[in-house]
Design a protein that fits this description.
disordered C terminus; 4-stranded mixed sheet; 4-stranded antiparallel sheet; 546 residues; alpha+beta; single chain
Length: 546
């Protein structure tokens, strides 16, 4: 007996959220789904008791990972139809005889074809060496995520009302600050026009011709315009969330378990994972006797990079010290102001693919000096340097790179000479994707340990687990979560001694570093620590321009 549950965003809006069908064939206790996590959200216990689960959406995502990245289809190139969408289209075009139609007019002989298609995906995953990742990580994570988040997230109605009342005034203050700085509008394209006009193009990441929203955090200290835009972006994100939820006080976001090309989970409707730190206190416990805790992997990707590269010095520094602080002392000396933050910029610059010229500007020094600094960095971490070079070579030769769990990211055109963007993800995908697998493994462990306890996962935030539980067992539950996170990382990398940062200082809300009053402070003064009358910058004498 084969059972089908297909989410319907491949079809049309006249269908219910999930179409179910059952056929008798040689497949015993086989469940075929499209997007297991969302099927669970609609059908719940209807998905229990199957010997085998084939999630077409997950299998396609894994098999095609990276091949259909939007960047391959810029400049007017048509984005192709592939996977089940293509299969359905071809079936409809070639289907000329219909013995009978089932629910919603879907031909009955479509379902046996779907079994064949799902089996083909399974065989391809096995042949490609990624079936184990699918079985051991993605399927258990989909189930664990559903079970741990099914109670939803509670929002503070007073905070929501305050944001609605004060957001427009805060927005006008920010727009005024942009206008004073000669930025023509509030969109990222307006910022890029401003950057080009004042010849600030040096801050474009290498291989790109514009700045994106995610670059703002690196550029905040270069000129107040970047900091102002960062504030505007935070406000836009919280307003978007409010528009999405309407008058709801209890929300249950939708999750894409492989929403990012790195394999990381993402959230939509609403994007709970996208709430800016300053607005996170809007999330509160569901009950007065519950408290909220955040457990965060410390410098996770640095540790993963150390283990993958088997760099003895980086492993030792990760295990015994703050890597950014240690590297800052090495590169800039202990007496150099902000040496830790400078070292972090360098590590992030390498990760995001910033050129040496851009890093030099960020650190307010010359390109030659940055070259010397990077030479000293790679001299200490020579294993990391070799590993990154090997990844770049392997990606070019094979057309893909892979994570510790076997997940592969592919090039669309493997025979072409890779561009800068591709050479960059050759180096960062194995690190970020391995970190994603570790995090998913931690969620699976947490579910196994706490599924019978009063425990709700509120947000699976990349490297952080935000949860609520009864106040009287807060310490004990936090210890379980911490151990699960550490054990998941050590299963892959026994040489590492991972650290988990615990924020339980203000359990009455989700907050950053105990700052429960950050919402009101931001709304009252969105331009805090920015003097729009001043336009100073250590890199550029802006008085010549503004």
């Amino acid at each position: 007996m084969a059972k089908f549950h297909l989410t319907t965003y491949l079809f049309n809006g006249n269908f219910p959220p999930v179409i179910s069908h059952e056929i008798k064939d040689d497949n015993e206790n086989l469940l075929i789904v499209f997007d297991l996590h969302n099927c669970l959200s609609h059908l719940r216990s209807a998905l229990d008791g199957y010997d085998e689960v084939l999630d077409i959406h997950l299998l396609e995502t894994i098999l095609y990972l990276g091949k259909y990245h939007r960047k391959y289809f810029e400049n007017g190139r048509v984005f192709p139809t592939y996977g089940l969408r293509k299969h359905i289209s071809e079936f409809s075009a070639n289907h000329t005889t219909v013995e009978a139609s089932g629910a919603y007019g879907i031909p009955l002989d479509f379902w046996p074809r779907l079994v064949t298609y799902a089996r083909k995906l399974q065989k391809r995953a096995m042949a490609g060496g990624i079936w184990k990742h699918y079985q051991d990580i993605e399927i258990p994570f989909s189930r664990a995520l559903y079970e741990l988040t099914k109670n939803g997230v509670t929002l503070d109605s007073t905070a929501l009302q305050k944001i609605r009342q004060m957001a427009e005034k805060a927005r006008q203050e920010i727009l005024y600050a942009l206008d004073i700085n000669k930025v023509s509008g509030p969109e990222i394209n307006d910022l890029n026009d401003w950057v080009r006009e004042y010849r600030f193009n040096v801050f474009f990441p290498a291989g790109r011709d514009k700045i994106s929203i995610k670059d703002l955090s690196l550029l905040e200290d270069q000129h107040q315009v970047f900091k102002i835009f960062q504030r505007l972006n935070k406000l836009k994100r919280i307003i978007s969330l409010l528009d999405n939820i309407g008058e709801q006080r209890k929300i249950r976001p939708s999750y894409k378990t492989m929403g990012a090309v790195t394999g990381r989970c993402t959230s939509t409707n609403p994007n709970i994972m996208g709430i800016p730190k300053i607005f996170r206190p809007v999330v509160i416990p569901s009950r007065p006797d519950f408290g909220i805790v955040e457990c965060d992997y410390s410098q996770m990707e640095v540790g993963v990079a150390a283990a993958l590269s088997n760099d003895g010095n980086l492993i030792a520094d990760f295990n015994t010290a703050d890597v950014y602080e240690k590297t800052g002392e090495l590169l800039f000396g202990g007496s150099s102001g902000g040496s830790r933050s400078k070292a972090k910029v360098i590590f992030l610059g390498i990760q995001y693919g910033l050129s040496r010229k851009t890093i030099a500007k960020l650190l307010e020094t010359g390109v030659k000096e940055i070259s010397n600094i990077l030479d000293r960095l790679y001299a200490r971490y020579s294993g990391l340097s070799r590993y990154l070079n090997e990844l770049e070579k392997s990606g070019q030769e094979t057309g893909y790179v892979e994570s510790i769990s076997g997940l592969k990211r592919y090039r669309l055109y493997p025979r072409r000479t890779p561009n800068y963007w591709e050479r960059n993800w050759f180096k960062n995908f194995p690190i970020q994707s391995s970190a994603a697998a570790i995090f998913k493994g931690a969620i699976i462990k947490i579910y196994k340990k706490l599924k019978y306890e009063q425990f709700n996962l509120l947000v699976p935030l990349y490297d952080s687990v935000i949860f609520e539980c009864p106040l009287d067992c807060l310490i004990q539950t936090t210890r379980v979560v911490e151990h699960c996170m550490i054990d998941s990382m050590r299963e892959y990398f026994p040489k590492l001694k991972p650290k988990v940062s615990i924020n339980d200082s203000h359990p009455s809300c989700w907050n950053s570093e105990g700052k429960g009053k950050s919402i009101e402070e931001f709304l009252n003064n969105p331009l805090f620590d920015i003097d729009i009358r001043e336009k100073s910058c250590n890199n550029v004498d802006w008085s010549n321009y503004l």
